[in-house]
Amino acid sequence: MKETVRTNLLPAKNGEEYTMQFLLEVVDILTNYVRKTFDRSTKVLDFHHPHQLLEGMEGFNLELCDQPESLEQILVDCRDTLKYGVRTGHPRFFNQLSSGLDIIGLAGEWLTSTANTNMFTYEIAPVFVLMEQLTLKKMREIIGWPNGEGDGIFSPGGAISNMYSVMVARYKHYPEVKIKGMAAAPRLVLFTSEHSHYSIKKASAVLGFGTENLILLKTDERGRVIPADLEAKVIDAKQKGFMPVFVNATAGSTVYGAFDPINEIADICEKYNIWLHVDGAWGGGLLMSRKHRHKLNGVERANSVTWNPHKMMGVPLQCSAILVREKGLLQGCNSMCAGYLFQPDKQYDVTYDTGDKAIQCGRHVDIFKFWLMWKSKGTIGFEKHIDRCLELSEYLYHKIKNREGYEMVFQGEPQHTNVCFWYIPPSLRLLPDGEEKRQRLHKVAPKIKAMMMECGTTMVGYQPQGDKVNFFRMVVSNPAVTRSDIDFLIDEIERLGQDL
Amino acid sequence: MKETVRTNLLPAKNGEEYTMQFLLEVVDILTNYVRKTFDRSTKVLDFHHPHQLLEGMEGFNLELCDQPESLEQILVDCRDTLKYGVRTGHPRFFNQLSSGLDIIGLAGEWLTSTANTNMFTYEIAPVFVLMEQLTLKKMREIIGWPNGEGDGIFSPGGAISNMYSVMVARYKHYPEVKIKGMAAAPRLVLFTSEHSHYSIKKASAVLGFGTENLILLKTDERGRVIPADLEAKVIDAKQKGFMPVFVNATAGSTVYGAFDPINEIADICEKYNIWLHVDGAWGGGLLMSRKHRHKLNGVERANSVTWNPHKMMGVPLQCSAILVREKGLLQGCNSMCAGYLFQPDKQYDVTYDTGDKAIQCGRHVDIFKFWLMWKSKGTIGFEKHIDRCLELSEYLYHKIKNREGYEMVFQGEPQHTNVCFWYIPPSLRLLPDGEEKRQRLHKVAPKIKAMMMECGTTMVGYQPQGDKVNFFRMVVSNPAVTRSDIDFLIDEIERLGQDL
Fold it and tell me: What residue intervals traverse the membrane (chains A, B) (predicted)?
């Protein structure tokens, strides 16, 4: 395809042949990438520093120019983009809550981009709008809301889904805020645990509550909210004249994978008439498993639930749902009735135009890949996947809990796939507990991680938490992972860490 | 591939062959769809009512089940999903500001989904993060900010980009709102025109300002803000003790395609120290054209700019940028410093971890398709595309402005590609002006539109505006459109409307 330029492609006259040839060459690059992603002899990444990539790697120049490149160069750019990226579908990529490369999901995304449409109206996305509606209903049924009644929408990620929950809670209790602003409400306070996702704090800043009006709740040693602390703080806030309006319970915290006790929290929310949101971005997937869904007992009492199929259910990024028990609130909260988009005099039933529920105008089609995966796996397929990932985590937990050189961050079997641990290199093992050991241990995980990335063999997350120094957080959500990959990770940590 | 199930696919042992075969069958479906999209003998859509699709069309069942479907059925589902959808890339699809199917952009999206990663850190999206940075800088240079300095981020659509602008304006003037909430600020008011996009109103509700604190500005007959009205309303607000904090100037309004006079608005904003945002979601693309960019004169004086490459520049959905002139504000406004994601002790320069600027946590990769298109077209390719679309609109304008049965909604050549007009069927032409004619005319556009959709021949938008009854809004952003398609639209309107 040397020196062919894009003006030969469709919509050019006789552009069909070039177009098909070009697309098939792209697909060839992509299928090769897919093949290698699953091949354990391929590296997870080929690490380069920002300045290296910016300076340009042999023939890969990121700069944008006035003049067009040939299609041949475009294909090289595609190859290079993949070459210097990270294989998030690799069986040894454990770095994020989202990992894996589901082939059906991938096909779904390819189709979605080919359809290139927008979720705001039935008019231009009839099939996708209906798929979203049916899938949300199914999710609400699984949550346990009678007949799957309620409402919901897919949003651009869990942080936005959580933001929706705060907005809807505010609208439910103080609908006049929509028109009059926060000045129309008393001083509103929100509650969430110290271990909860930072998006709740972000929402409190964005929506005009202010982060100091988000009250952090204490957790037990496993990172689960202590309900008595919630009640004490609700009472305290009321005594100060503040109005408690929203409680977030986390189902599967980001670092520990902890599940807050929803039923006990729900009792308090009911008693004080506070909106209960369950952030199941990470843990929501466990609802698909008869074995593990008890960890979310009480979720049916929530007023709203965040659930990200792009995390534990292996759906490609992005796919996040906010589900609301009471119908009409999303619409009431967000509708602006734009006449040019949501004309009331269309020939079809315009209640299917769901765009006015959203804070977005245009909205990406995130539903199709998920719907297609559900079709291809069935509900039982998701259950098997969840159960398998949790088994792998148990395997890791049992492998390291008494192993020399490891210390668990919290005791007991993990509730989710999160296994949090310190690797203690031989040189630190005999040091007495104290500040020196802490400081040296704090540097171990970042060093091992940096070496992993430079070798390109595997990736796993680390972070400090509260007064705990940097530790590894291992998670499993990728269906390609086997016990041998878990073994590999541990071997690699020991190989890279033994001389630190 | 009969009765093959997904468990045969990768990561299954020996799943490679099945996987490649399955993906190639999907690609075959998609390339056929692409081919037909550009074929004018193909319908734009095959319309069905929601209840028809929900009841199930021969073999196409939207319901989700417990048990898996075969891969064969999955392929049928893919075909049916496309069959009952809308071809937004068809040369006769004029319904939205986003249309067209760019082949390079499509290839970019396929690659993006195959890479399946997340923009929040350099760690897992090194190439994409750098592409975003370089592209945003290029856009800022084109806006006219010295050396392309400033900041920005790609967001999930223009509504969210506009919301960012309001947030950043608030943070600039009242940074304490982040911590203390809206109670820490006086009564803040925002200004935007009656013709502006509803997302500004949405932002005022979401962020806790309240929609009544968004003051609507009068426009001239072409939908452009009257600067004197802005100044009068700013003075009035201040006299009432309110604090003007944000002005939105629209560059390319949704319905009329109007460009507010940015320089005159900027003078007022500077005089009263008010944040100036330019919503160029639709019109920003004209900055790429030496011929048309004067319509945005003064844009370099804005504090922030929304610019959606997925509209006038033909990039696949979604691709929207918010650009901010002052560096550091986005970060200051949104950062929460989550320790598990933005570790300060990584081995690379962590200023490339841009996730803490966003209101999202995970963020979809929207940059690659745009970057790849820019590479393949060069800056001059975008310019040609813009100029061509505007020429086509002029062609339409001149074709109908004196044609029998047409009336223009506003006089004069369109500023953007929006051509707004009434088609007046013969039966109404002799009616005297008055309420009866208005009422009957109000029904004409919806009726013609419904028939178009049922015939599947073309799609164009309509809406009322202010006291004007339903009219057609024709727009061109699809590079596949030719004069013959414009002619077709007019013929079709007359064919369908002549007996109304």
Answer: none
